[in-house]
Amino acid sequence: MKLSEPIVEWKSEITAIRRDIHAHPELAYEEVRTADLIAAKLESWGIPVHRGLGVTGVVGTIHGKSQNGRALGLRADMDALPMQELNTFEHASKNAGKMHACGHDGHTAMLLAAARYLVENRNFDGTVHVIFQPAEEGFSGAKAMIDDGLFDLFPMDAVFGMHNWPGMDVGTFGVVAGPLMASSNTFTIRLEGKGAHGGMPHLGVDPVMAAVQLAQSLQTIISRDRNPLDAAVLSITQIHSGSADNVIPNDAILRGTVRTFSEQTLDLIEKRMAEITEHTSRALNCTSEFDFVRKYPPTVNHEREAAFCARVLTEIVGADKVDQAVQPSMGAEDFAFMLKEKPGCYVWIGNGQGGHRSMGHGMGPCMLHNGSYDFNDDLIPLGATYWAELATQWLSAPAR
């Protein structure tokens, strides 16, 4: 493994920053303290800072030894989740009901270390923009930064992202060309019938039976309408109706999520859901409302950029530690919005099996969005080295 010596020397200092952020988690668009800390560190290293994109976003700009008209962006997310931490070690969350359970504190730390290395060495041509993004956890912070002019104020030819991945060994990476993470979408279906006595169902119109039939019928979209080689998920996660044993209620509500790796498949599923909802409810004498919300598009890596990232990673950790056939996840990531605007690539860095956690960790597994999770600080030198090497080599390579 080839790590940058200066970054290795900074590990304790950057780890302290990471743990400070972990202890003071902030939710979407509330990352004021975190943004203040990031901006202060960047400015102390001589990096100009722009603030306020996407409410709390921070962008630092690092110019190389000369300008060749090229620029790239490196992005980290910085928001926490609205959940209670189960860990009790020293850097556990001090904010009740808020926790860095996805490792955004570590992502921020790795990018800070890389930014320091790049500005102190400047052994590259062109410009590197380090992007610290708010509100990744379901609130489209990447889109908010783009809408506020991220790529207009900071022109860049490509953009890159990285996420820690529990279960993958430390020192390993996952990268693929094409889809790596799924689109995230939600739906709500409201069925209205006619309330009646449970012992006299013929006097009413039963929305519960319509909901049951609809729940089963919607699954035929996945089993019969969709190409079986094109992965997709349709999960009904909530059904709400009724208040008494002997009352047929007036209405029923179904909610859930749809995940796909392509927008074409998503178009098909949304269309068929609307059709099946309308016809099933009508067949059972109910009326219906169908609401479908597209939240995050699929995270789709660009082929050339994915191949470039794989080459850089191979130089750092070896070919056997870079999984270029890693199985994509049905989880979602709003870095997808950036990849729709610019060429780029998103990689996973192995967070290990959980053995890195100090005494006082919760009894649950060290998995994303789990109250016992903690980022593995051994990743800081590795992830920062990758960022620094990626930026240096990409800007030094011939323009394509």
From TrEMBL:
Pfam name, any one: Peptidase_M20
Cofactor(s) of this protein: Mn(2+)
Any one GO MF annotation of this record: metal ion binding
Keywords: Hydrolase, Manganese, Metal-binding
Signal peptide interval: none
Cofactor: binding details: The Mn(2+) ion enhances activity.
Entries under NCBIfam families matching the protein: amidohydrolases
Entry-linked PANTHER family: METALLOPEPTIDASE, PUTATIVE (AFU_ORTHOLOGUE AFUA_6G09600)-RELATED, PEPTIDASE M20 FAMILY MEMBER
Protein name, entry field: Amidohydrolase
